[in-house]
Amino acid sequence: MGRLLKSTMGHKLRAFVSHSAFDKSFAERVADVLRTAAINPWIDKEQVLVGDDVLEKLGEGLRTMDLLVFILRQGSSRVCSALPPTATM
């Protein structure tokens, strides 16, 4: 797995962490684990500030990431359908 995660672009890998509000504390722990693996996590708590356009920030985050980490539980998949079309890859 270590070789899989090495960046060929010469920059630190970035991972977008997608989660529901219910899973926020778990997502924060995942972000901490990613940091210890030298992966820079994008997590809403740190990237979306008061007054920001949330959908715009999510789309920007998705477009600039190397990896996507989805934290899903039964019944949470409907959240993914709320993403803006520009967030699709």
Could you explain how this protein is built, in words?
With 89 residues, the protein is an alpha/beta fold. It has a single domain, classed as 3-Layer(aba) Sandwich (Rossmann fold). It is 30% helix and 13% strand. It has 3 helices and 3 strands; from the N terminus they run βαβααβ. It has helices at residues 24-36, 44-47, 54-63; strands at residues 14-18, 40-42, 67-70. The protein has a 3-stranded parallel sheet. Strand 1, helix 1 and strand 2 form a beta-alpha-beta unit.
Features:
3 strands; 3 helices; three-stranded parallel β-sheet; 89 residues; alpha/beta; Rossmann fold; single chain; 30% helix
Quick rundown:
With 89 residues, the protein is of the alpha/beta class. It contains 3 helices and 3 strands.
Which helices and strands occur, and which strands form pairs?
Elements: E1 14-18, H1 24-36, E2 40-42, H2 44-47, H3 54-63, E3 67-70
Parallel strand pairs: 1-2, 1-3
Number of strands: 3
Strand fraction:
5-15%
Work out the oligomeric state of the chains in this entry: single chain
Structural class by helix and strand composition: alpha/beta
Radius of gyration: 13 Å
The top-level CATH class is Alpha Beta
Q: How many structural domains can be distinguished in the coordinates?
A: 1
| Major sheet attributes | 3 strands, parallel
Residue stretches low in confidence (pLDDT < 50, at least 5 long) are none
Q: Give the proportion of residues in helices.
A: 25-40%
What order do the strands of the largest sheet run in, or round the barrel if closed? 2-1-3
Order of helices and strands: EHEHHE
For the termini, the CA-CA separation is 23 Å
- The number of helical elements comes to 3
CATH topology: Rossmann fold
CATH H-level superfamily title:
Toll/interleukin-1 receptor homology (TIR) domain
Which descriptor suits the 3D outline? globular
CATH architectural label: 3-Layer(aba) Sandwich
